[in-house]
Specification:
mainly alpha, 2 domains, Arc Repressor Mutant, subunit A
C-alpha cells in the first residue's frame, strides 16, 4: 500500500515527491490503468487515517472560478467578460438549434429544414425554457439580465438542463463557469517516507 501511495504522487519509494490534489491523483490512477474498489475520496481518507498521506491547505482564495469549457481561471476583472462570453455562446447555440422569431416560434426558411425536436415535439429552446420556467421568447433576455454573478448561476442552470436532456446534447462551444473550492494538497506523510 505504501508503494501505491508513492506512485500516486508520481514517485518511487525513497524519493521525495510532489504534492497533488485529488484531480491529479485521479489522473495518475487513469494513467496507470488502475481502478479503485471505492471512491477516491474514501481511499484518500483511509490513507490519511492510516498515516500514509498528509495534507495541507495551500495559500490563495477559498474559491476558484473556472471556465469549464477550457479550464481557464476567470477571477477578478476577467470574471464579468468571461460570463458574458459564455452566455453569448449559449445564446448562439440555442439560436443555431432553433432559429425563432421574437415570440419564440420556430422560423423555417424556404427550402430549409425543421428544427430538431425531442419526443414531445419541443425544440431545444422550448425544452430549456420549460425546465427553467422562462418564456421561450424571453430566454435570451433572461440569460443576459443581471450582474455577472447572477448570470453565472443562470448559465450553470442552463448547462445543467441541456446536459440532463434525454435528447439534446451539450455542445463544446460553451459551458458553465464553476465555483470550485480550494482543495487540499496531499503528500506522502513522514511515516510513509520513513517506513
Amino acid at each position: 500500500m505504501v508503494y501505491m501511495v508513492h506512485h500516486w504522487v508520481g514517485t518511487v519509494p525513497g524519493e521525495a515527491g510532489p504534492d497533488l490534489g485529488k484531480m491529479e491523483m485521479d489522473q495518475a490512477l487513469d494513467s496507470l490503468d488502475l481502478e479503485l474498489d471505492h471512491s477516491l475520496d474514501t481511499a484518500v481518507s483511509n490513507l490519511e487515517k492510516a498515516g500514509l498521506l498528509g495534507k495541507y491547505e495551500p495559500d490563495g482564495p477559498d474559491w476558484w472560478l473556472i471556465r469549464q469549457r477550457d479550464g481557464e481561471f476567470v477571477m477578478g476583472e476577467d470574471f464579468p467578460p468571461a460570463v458574458q462570453d459564455e452566455c453569448q455562446r449559449a445564446i448562439k447555440h440555442i439560436r443555431g438549434m432553433d432559429p425563432s422569431d421574437e415570440g419564440g416560434t420556430p422560423a423555417v426558411a424556404d427550402g430549409g429544414h425543421s428544427p430538431k425536436t425531442n419526443d414531445e415535439g419541443e425544440t431545444l429552446r422550448q425544452e430549456v425554457s420549460r425546465k427553467l420556467d422562462v418564456k421561450s421568447g424571453e430566454l435570451e433576455g433572461w440569460l443576459s439580465a443581471g450582474d455577472a454573478k447572477t448570470r453565472r448561476q443562470k448559465l450553470e442552470n442552463l448547462v445543467g438542463v441541456i446536459s440532463g436532456s434525454d435528447y439534446f446534447e451539450a455542445p463544446d462551444s460553451f459551458d458553465e463557469i464553476s465555483l470550485i473550492p480550494k482543495g487540499y494538497r496531499y503528500h506522502r506523510s513522514e511515516f510513509a517516507v520513513n517506513h
